[in-house]
Amino acid sequence: MSNTSFSTLNLRTELTENLSTLGYQDMTPIQTQSLPPVLEGRDVIAQAKTGSGKTAAFGLGLLNNLEVKRFRVQALVLCPTRELVDQVAVEIRRLTRAIHNIKVLTLCGGTAFGPQLGSLEHGAHIIVGTPGRVEEHLRKGSLQTADISCFVLDEADRMLDMGFEETLNKIVAKLPTKRQTLLFSATYPDTIESMAKRVLNKPVMVRVDASH
Ligand code: ADP
Ligand code: MG
Fold first, then answer.
1. What is the distance between the alpha carbons of residues 204 and 180, in angstroms, rounded to a whole number?
2. Full pLDDT tens readout for the chain, 212 residues
3. Residue whose CA is closest, atom 13 of ligand 1?
4. How far is the CA of 28 from the centre of ligand 2 (A)?
5. Considering every ligand atom, which ligand is closest to the CA of 60?
6. What angle do CA 45, 88, 124 make, to 5 degrees?
7. Helix 131-140 / helix 165-173 crossing angle, nearest 10 deg
8. Distance between CA atoms of residues 209 and 184, nearest Å
9. Secretion signal: which residues (predicted)?
10. Per-domain residue ranges for the chain?
11. What does CATH list as the number for 28-207?
12. What string of H, E and C letters represents the secondary structure of 140-203?
């Protein structure tokens, strides 16, 4: 077994089995570096270029810690655009395939609000959404945060570029302070650093340079 094999991680059996069904044998470099601290429950800042497998790096972390029998929103993932939300939801659903009854719900703007209220009433374990629409659900009380133990900022650099900082601050203010926060980004400008200082707690920083 190579030291980049997923089997080195002690993931729950269904996840490990599903990964081999999906043809994922070895971790990508960013997965090798970020998954151990993510699985320990640490806050993590991970920087690596697009296409390096960042979704599974946080996806496996939140899925491994999820209590399937507790039908409450336990993880909130924010992405800058609807397309990215859909891609992340597809990848998380692929990773959950062998664990039955895990419900992943997407919440994006540009989609009717009413049906989302109905879906939220039915419940979900994991929410993947865009900042604007998620904040609207929080403000209106249709999304409960009390059981959220894992908060993910995906493509954090793009979210800040798109002017979401204020919205992100409002969302963070409504989350439990005792939580795991994971920040994934392709770049690490100063704006991210100052936000990370406010939102993450003693984060582990991992970085895979484009030249590697
Ligand atoms: P990023 O978010 O860094 O841009 P993604 O998470 O979208 O990258 O992953 C890019 C592609 O690589 C996806 O199609 C995903 O299914 C695939 N992938 C991720 N991790 C692995 C792995 N360990 N082995 C094989 N394929 C992987
Ligand atoms: Mg990504």
1. 12
2. 688 999 999 999 999 999 999 999 999 999 999 999 999 999 999 999 999 999 999 999 999 999 999 999 999 999 999 999 999 999 999 999 878 889 999 999 999 999 999 999 999 999 999 999 999 999 999 999 999 999 999 999 999 999 999 999 999 999 999 999 999 999 999 999 999 999 999 999 999 986 54
3. 53
4. 13
5. 1
6. 100
7. 40
8. 14
9. none
10. 28-207
11. 3.40.50.300
12. HCCCCCCCCCEEEECCHHHHHHCCCHHHHHHHHHCCCCCCEEEEEECCCCHHHHHHHHHHCCCC
Question: What is the distance between the alpha carbons of residues 92 and 103, in angstroms, rounded to a whole number?
Answer: 10
Residue that is written with structure tokens 């204020």 in the block? 166
The owner of tokens 């395939």 is 97
Any idea which residue has 């400008």 for tokens? 189
In ligand 1, which atom is closest to the CA atom of 31? Answer: 23
Using a 6 Å CB cutoff, which residues line ligand 1?
A: 24, 27-28, 31, 50-56, 91
Residue 7, Cβ neighbours under 10 Å: how many? 12
